[in-house]
Amino acid sequence: MDRHGAPVIDGLQYSNWSREIFEQMRAGGVDCVHVTIVYWETTIETINNITEWHKLFRIHQDLIMPVRYAEDVNRARESNRTGIVFGFQNCSPIDNDVGLVEIFHQLGIRFMQLSYNNQSPLATGCYETVDPGITRFGKQVIAEMNRVGMTVDMSHSSERSTLDAIDISQRPIAITHANPAFFRQALRNKSDAVLRALADSGGMLGFSVYPFHLKDGPHCKLTDFCEMVATTADIMGIDNLGLGTDLCQNQPTSVLTWMRSGRWSLEMDFGEGSADDSDWPAQPAWFRSNLDFRNISEGLTRQGFSNDEVDKIMGGNWFRFYNRSFTAHES
């Protein structure tokens, strides 16, 4: 990747972290990755996960570093490392305590999903049949997230809850890893109404390459993916788009079970509605690891995007979003 252009930023990954993957990030020119710290973890389990990441920062300090503010992305690039942003895919760590939002922000958390597929104390997940929207507690948590500089993420949330969050939040929200529903009818993928409201509010959409959310699944063509990006740009504008690959490289099936079922179910939850998704799907041939970001940028160029537009999608828009979202708004 061009070291003098915009940074390359991935809006979401949950890989089985190792030196091999960190080396692939560097070889692939990936400047920053938002990593998942939590699915269903408790408060203390979350702190333990953060502790493990700080061990990784020490062991692999030549390859990775923590990112708390946008300028840290520049520091990572200048030192030829990949910056790591922490995020939660669920609100379980705050344990019904709004005060923990600020504590976790101080520990480096910069994104939190209000729900993960199921109903949470804050919002409705995308797999629920009834969607009452953002709860009373959810409104308080959004206000506190706005104040401290933690981004509201609605990637796994339902339609009404997502529209409510866009309306309630005083700062732009993000959908870090999902695709438009017109590309594939999946419960997590977002309607045109959500896309338009997100864009109108200045929010961000990160395009996912997770096969269950792609047209034709693992057989999705890069040209189809890039055409989807172009159509979404017509709906949302170029400045609201980025990548959120949802790459889960080298993870065992046990992790898929944890993501889907946590402790709330005694059986495997088939997230896409059938037993066909009981194991990790194969990645499309054009995106199997962090070495493959160049394939996406080249595909976008062939699709007709200008160099400036490709830079925005590959990370420039996320960098701008980080710059305005990670700092506090003190009341």
What are the defining features of this structure?
331 residues; alpha/beta; TIM Barrel; 3-stranded parallel β-sheet; 11 helices; 12% strand
What does it look like?
The protein has a single domain (9-325), classed as Alpha-Beta Barrel (TIM Barrel), CATH 3.20.20. It is built from 11 helices and 9 strands. It has helices at 19-27, 43-59, 70-78, 99-106, 136-148, 159-168, 192-200, 222-236, 253-261, 293-303, 307-325; strands at 9-13, 32-38, 64-66, 82-88, 109-113, 151-153, 174-175, 204-207, 241-243. The radius of gyration is 18 Å and the shape is globular. The model has no long low-confidence stretch (mean pLDDT 95).
Secondary-structure blueprint:
Layout: E1 9-13, H1 19-27, E2 32-38, H2 43-59, E3 64-66, H3 70-78, E4 82-88, H4 99-106, E5 109-113, H5 136-148, E6 151-153, H6 159-168, E7 174-175, H7 192-200, E8 204-207, H8 222-236, E9 241-243, H9 253-261, H10 293-303, H11 307-325
Parallel strand pairs: 1-2, 2-4, 3-4, 4-5, 5-6, 7-8, 8-9
Helix pairs in contact: 4-5, 6-7, 8-10, 10-11
